[in-house]
Amino acid sequence: MRSTPVAVAAAALALLAVPAVAAAKPSAADRATAAKECRAERGSTPATREAFRERYGTNRNKRNAFGRCVSRGARAEAREDGRSRSNAARQCRAEAEELGREEFAAKYGTGKRGRNAFGKCVAATAKALRAEDDAEQREEIAERKSAAKQCAAERREVGPEAFAEKHGTNRNKRNAFGKCVSETAKQMDDDPEEGEQEQD
Question: What pTM, to 2 d.p., does this model score?
Fold first, then answer.
């Protein structure tokens, strides 16, 4: 089977689109969304704030945690935007093939001829994919906050030294709280019922 010039050009464009998605620069909206998510993850209790500093802080006093969270989150938001648009376009192409041109235009298009059907389909599908991603992120944040509260309760119960000995992995065991939160959140992710019971 011979490949047509159009097929070769489409394949080349698809290969060029992948790095563009991977290196997408965060927009102001991405940064605003990331800041909102970071505020939610940081929470308002001492336990959730400590877990937040442990997870994101890199300097000695961990005071740069919020900025690091926003920076990382904005880059992730930009990647998600690109991925959701790319996946949405792929899904819409498949749906257009399946339904046929006229039925697809009738379903998604507006105006007399429905020429904007593909764009409308991509926008709606990308929005739905982003909503799924956002729901997963909210669930992860809730798990981490619940884990932070559990670890704070455990530390109060057994004492700081025993807690550090049990969970700490570095030389001075100062990473104990962060390690506890990570382990507990991972267990909740593996066993969702445990996280639901803790939040009630």
Answer: 0.69
